[in-house]
Amino acid sequence: MSGIRPDLTKASTVSRYSHSFAQNANEWGARPCLLDLVPSYSSVRRGILWPRETVRRSMNQFQGLNTTFFGGTILALIAGIFRDQTPLEQRPLSLWLLVAFFFLLRLKIFWDDQQYFGKTETKNVHFKVGLIIGIISWIVWVGAAWTVNDLREAYFFIGLAIGVSMLWIIADALRKGAYREQYFWIATNTGFILLLWGTYRRNKPVGDIATWCFLGLAITLVVVDFFISKSVPELER
To answer: For the chain, which residues make up each domain, given as ranges?
Structure first.
């Protein structure tokens, strides 16, 4: 005998703990949500403790690009408004109707693009061609936003931006076959282009009752599109 007595109390505690841990491990195996809270090794090494579920839900690179361009468009719109030194309260009604139409339509396009990038197959040449058209349209939207201080220029360039966006819709429809919402988008976008370019040709810088009615109709169609396209499911409740 060595004279060293084992600590039976500690051994018993360890045994009970091991048994309890085994039971809990079995229970945890049926709870994948707990495992999702375990950070990956790479994130720990970088010092970033992000739950795996959070990483899984983060936007992909195409959604991030879409968000960046949308943010740039809104900044360009604000800058375009303030390029004109005229006090805001003295700006014509046509300007504010056009800004409302621009913002709602661009928001609608952004939201639909986010959903598209979240579920579409991206590893094929058709997607890449569509993406190039989409990026061109986003750039034109930024330029159109910058021109809102000059209503006549804005009518033309916003119509151009809508036209380029419609090319993306047509390209996707030809590849996979058009669905109901795409028919509606093509029809309304064509109407928007005719309306804006018609107003551009009329050359009424301050606007008149016809211009206000046209822009009001355009805003109404964009709002209706939110419901028809089911872009925001909460609106149906």
So the answer is: 8-52, 59-236
